[in-house]
Amino acid sequence: MNCTGRFALPLVCLSLFSLPAFAQSPRQEQQGLSGPASSEWLVTVGAWTYAQPEFEGSNDLTFGASPIINIRRRGEREWLSLPNDHGGPTLFSTANFRFGPSFNFVRERDDDDALRGLGSVDWALEVGAFAEFWPADFFRTRVEVRRGFNGHEGFVADLSADAVWRLAPAWTLTAGPRLSVADGEYMSTYFSVSPFQSITSGLARYDAKGGFKSAGVGSSLTYQWTPAVATTAFVEYERLLGDAAKSPIVEDRGSPDQLTVGMGVKYTFSVVTANWPLFSGR
């Protein structure tokens, strides 16, 4: 669940490009796919607000916000997308599968009070791909694999599964498990304590290895106020595992229990391009 609170504006626009205005099952989303391509586009705009750990392993919260942007042609399939997804636009899809790029921006980790003596970690851009499979209309599985640049140069893999319930015409509930795996390069960047850092921080020297990074569960609840306006509340909990949980940074100055809560507001409107010279060919 590394997504929340780590977006720079351009990357959020990419990673949330396929975010829907409201959650639906694949069978419901496929209605209207037949026939010629529509000249009407559905544009969704909005924002997420959230409270999340100040850094991975922190027991202090920080607050933030990120935009929601989605553009799709009317009649095209609208896929479920959740706040912890890092997906970009769909490049290939079938009735129950899709594939596309994955982006994440990890903000700089400052040398603040809890991290005094460890130095700062620069921001990182993570680039990779996601794949999503629906074994049933009400159940989604998803995997994302990304490679970091700048702040860290490791690999991260996020796996998730979510059940989707339409509780009533206006309510949609999702819930499911999360698992995150990282290689040694990533784990060393954020959880190791070098000999020099041990001297300056007072923490024990520690060499974090790759492996399971965290496991947890996430849930979201969406209410569709009108066909155009929806709000979503979400909660994500993860427990740091393995070398991440054993790090002195976590044991002495933080907590392995990580909680993120937030809410999003989305507004959808239509744009007809049939009479636009750029789209009509005139």
Explained architecture:
There is one protein chain. The protein has 282 residues and is mainly β. The chain has a single domain (9-280), classed as Outer membrane phospholipase (ompla), Chain C, CATH 2.40.230. The protein is built from seven helices and eleven strands. The protein has helices at 9-15, 26-29, 184-191, 195-201, 242-246, 248-253, 277-280; strands spanning 40-53, 61-73, 92-93, 97-106, 124-136, 139-150, 155-168, 171-182, 211-224, 229-240, 257-272. An eleven-stranded antiparallel sheet has the order 2-1-11-10-9-8-7-6-5-4-3. Strand 6 and strand 7 form a beta hairpin.
* Fraction of helical residues: 10-25%
CATH architectural name? Beta Barrel
Measured by DSSP, the beta-strand proportion falls in over 45%
Determine the mean pLDDT. 85
CATH level 1 class label: Mainly Beta
Number of domains: 1
Distance from N terminus to C terminus (CA atoms, Å) equals 46 Å
The string of secondary-structure elements, in order, is HHEEEEEEEEHHEEHHEH
Number of strands: 11
Ranges with pLDDT <50 over ≥5 residues?
1-36
Largest sheet: 11 strands, antiparallel
Q: What's the gyration radius in Å? A: 20 Å
Instruction: Give the strand line-up of the largest sheet.
Output: 2-1-11-10-9-8-7-6-5-4-3
Could you name the CATH topology?
Outer membrane phospholipase (ompla), Chain C
Number of helices: 7
